[in-house]
Design a protein that fits this description.
heterodimer, A: mainly alpha, Ammonium transporter fold, 16 helices, B: alpha+beta, Alpha-Beta Plaits, 4-stranded antiparallel β-sheet, two-stranded antiparallel ribbon, 2 helices, about 35% strand
Chain lengths: ~450, ~110
């Protein structure tokens, strides 16, 4: 299995790349120019904090033993008792924890106090993600979603996407709308970054989905055979579902809003990848195309819900990750084939309603768990250090307010100053002299 | 002397400049501006959210000329900048009291 080990080294690096920089670019391009650095920093700092916490207790809570919600955090504390030959398995899972937490940041763009994010990140990883990873990925006998309910989730439709999507919804509601939401235009400031980020996410997702293979064979030979057949299936499904979701999103957009947009294509990529994540091993190519089309089409519609329901999920963590995650997780109940990794036939493959029920219950448990835990954490922060940046800082832009930086040394107000920058405020000498005084 | 101010479509700028130079206009001030007239901007859609983009990018040209040349300059701008579609812009003439060349202190016609 040398090939598998070499592949996992690459897969792990690919999944880390999904957060740093792919997700940061995807989100950063969609934010306004005055908050792009903060948007990207939320991903970068989440990676740093969650990664170290994962080595401390995350692996132990997730994969250190049995339990309904989580395993003993201290059995394998700081990987004590894990041989270095097993590290790559740990670090692969670590990258999943990192991106799940980072995904949430899109819901609170422009307005979450940076200190509040730095406190939220480890608390949420500890109390929400590590347990969910145990319930879904460890698949021990007692683990709630995999072991007890028996829901299939190949790479994280529940633990990653539903989990992050619900957390995004809770945070968006508790932190409130951006100033001017629904009145001022809040256009994405650089869609080329978003297109690039979406493409890099797609690339990285091969590590995410294909790397999530769990061997079931009794012998090395059986495992090698499984490696060949299953990686082909997951790679193929990941590819086709994403392509179908681009088309699904664009068609719905064209019908509803008369234009097929680049942001729609980029969003379709992510919606398709999200939906095929739980189903990558369970379905065949036709199932993957169906799931991708449905996810692209439904998410394209779902991102409009926030305006009707009145919450400011700024970059559509709910509309893409929660909705896409639920679609992928539940549709396994329809499109799952017993030839796939789970060995279960869904409704359309002659398997009856059993799988559909398991999948729906698994999704529901994930929604409730994440909803309750995130609410407790967010309220605790709200009533201690506060969640939200002050109004002046939000108006000026969180990049300057929180980090003392601006992303671009150009002024795009469209006034008569042109692009020469001659009329731009001269901030540099001032800040230097301030620095010298300090 | 007169100040001729023209607000035109950006892609017409090179044509207008060339025509004015051929006519004999020796200098002008040009700026990138934004605004709107009857055409009222356009609509953009991002994930289903429609935004009215009120301001349209334009080029503003300012030329100071002798009284007798003002109408010719206006005609040249109108002829070269015209596409016949909405949003072609405006040209107007205003009186100028005095002009001084900074380098030499020359005044009025000598300063043009």
């Amino acid at each position: 299995m040398d090939g598998y080990y070499a592949f996992m080294l690459v897969a792990t690096a690919l999944v880390l790349m999904m957060t740093v920089p792919a997700l940061a670019l995807f989100y950063g391009g969609m934010s306004r120019s005055k908050s792009v650095l903060n948007m990207m920093m939320m991903s970068y700092v989440a990676a740093a904090i969650v990664g170290i916490l994962y080595v401390a207790v995350g692996w132990s809570m997730g994969f250190g033993g049995d339990g309904t919600f989580f395993a003993n955090p201290f059995d394998l504390f700081w990987l004590d008792g894990v041989d270095t030959s097993g590290y790559i398995g740990v670090f692969f899972q670590l990258t999943f924890a990192v991106i799940t937490v980072a995904l949430i940041s899109g819901a609170v763009a422009d307005r979450m106090k940076f200190a509040a994010w730095v406190v939220f990140v480890p608390l949420w990883a500890l109390l929400c993600y590590f347990p969910m990873a145990h319930m879904v990925f460890s698949c021990t006998d007692d683990s709630l979603i995999c072991g007890r309910i028996g829901a299939q989730d190949y790479a994280g439709g529940t633990a990653v996407h539903i989990n992050a999507g619900v957390a995004g919804l809770v945070l968006a509601v508790l932190i409130g709308k951006r100033l001017g939401f629904g009145k001022e235009p809040m256009r994405p400031h650089n869609l080329t970054l978003t297109m690039l980020g979406a493409g890099l996410l797609w690339f990285g997702w091969y590590g995410f989905n294909v790397g999530s293979i769990v061997f079931t064979g009794a012998t090395d030979e059986e495992n090698v055979a499984q490696f060949f057949s299953e990686t082909g299936r997951t790679f193929g499904n990941t590819t086709l579902a994403t392509m179908a979701a681009i088309l699904g999103w664009l068609v719905v957009e064209k019908v509803l809003h008369k234009k097929a947009t680049s942001l729609g294509a980029a969003s379709g990529i992510v919606a398709g990848l999200v939906a095929i994540t739980p189903a990558a091993g369970a379905v065949d190519l036709s199932g993957a195309v169906a799931i991708g089309l449905i996810a692209g089409a439904v998410c394209a519609w779902a991102v409009g819900l926030k305006y009707k329901l009145g919450y400011d999920d700024s970059l559509d963590v709910v509309g893409v990750h929660l909705v896409g995650g639920v679609i992928g997780t539940v549709l396994i109940g329809l499109f799952s084939t017993s030839e796939g990794a789970g060995g279960v036939d869904g409704l359309f493959y002659g398997g009856g309603l059993g799988s559909l029920g398991d999948q729906a219950l698994g999704a529901l448990v994930a929604i409730v768990f994440s909803g309750v835990v995130t609410t407790v954490i967010a309220l605790a922060i709200k009533f201690t250090i506060g969640l939200r940046l002050d109004e002046d800082g939000e108006v000026a832009g969180i990049d300057v307010a929180a980090h003392g930086e601006s992303a671009y040394d150009i002024h795009t107000g469209g006034g008569g100053a042109g692009s020469s920058g001659i009329l731009a405020p001269k901030t540099a000498p001032l800040s230097q002299s301030e620095g010298a005084r300090a | 002397m007169k100040l001729v101010t023209a607000v035109i479509k950006p892609h017409k700028w090179e044509d207008v400049r060339e025509a004015l130079e051929t006519f004999g206009v020796t200098g002008m001030t040009v700026s990138e501006v934004s605004g709107y007239g009857r055409q009222k901007g356009h609509t953009e859609v991002y994930r289903g959210a429609e935004y009215d983009i009120a301001l349209v990018p334009k080029i503003r040209i300012e030329i100071v000329v002798d009284d007798g040349e003002a109408n010719d300059v206006v005609d040249i701008v109108v002829k070269t900048a015209q596409t016949g579609r909405i949003g072609d812009g405006k040209v107007w003439i205003s009186p100028v009291e005095t002009v001084v060349r900074v380098r030499t202190g020359d005044r009025d016609s000598a300063a043009l």
